[in-house]
Specification:
It is a single chain. With 114 residues, this protein is mainly beta. 0% of the residues lie in helices and 54% in strands. The chain has no helices and eleven strands. The strands form two sheets. Strands 2, 4, 5, 6, 9, 10 and 11 form a seven-stranded mixed beta sheet that branches. A four-stranded antiparallel beta sheet has the order 1-3-8-7, with no helix packed on it. Strand 5 (46-51) and strand 6 (57-59) form a beta hairpin.
Length: 114
């Protein structure tokens, strides 16, 4: 059974940092493209960035230079390191695994507020 479980969300002040994790099981993690997405209240889900099975990363312009995606194929986990957080980064963050069919986690809430 495929499982993706995000963790690490919470309340953080503007300018702060947070690291999200997405622990996976039930599929061959190392051969899957992994990505992070987010959905702010009242808005559509948007791509934050992703990492290929070979480790190549890419990011949305809105987070470039502030967010870093990495993966640990031994732990079957993908990470999203977020820094210089802004109130507009407030959203539910989801991870996705894709190789043909896609699998989604249930998300973790990040709130950036003073």
């Amino acid at each position: 059974q495929v499982q993706l479980v995000e963790s690490g969300g919470g309340l953080v002040q503007p300018g702060g940092s947070l690291r999200l994790s997405c622990a996976t099981s039930g599929f061959t993690f190392s051969s899957y493209h992994m990505s992070w997405h987010r959905q702010a209240p009242g808005k559509e889900r948007e791509l934050v960035g992703g990492i290929s099975s070979g480790g190549t990363t890419y990011y949305a312009d809105s987070v470039k230079g502030r967010f870093t995606i990495s993966r640990d194929n031994l732990k079957n986990t993908v990470y999203l390191q977020m820094s210089s957080l802004k109130p507009e980064d407030t959203a539910v963050y989801y991870c996705k695994a894709q190789r043909g069919a896609g699998y989604w986690g249930k998300g973790t809430l990040v709130t950036v507020s003073s």
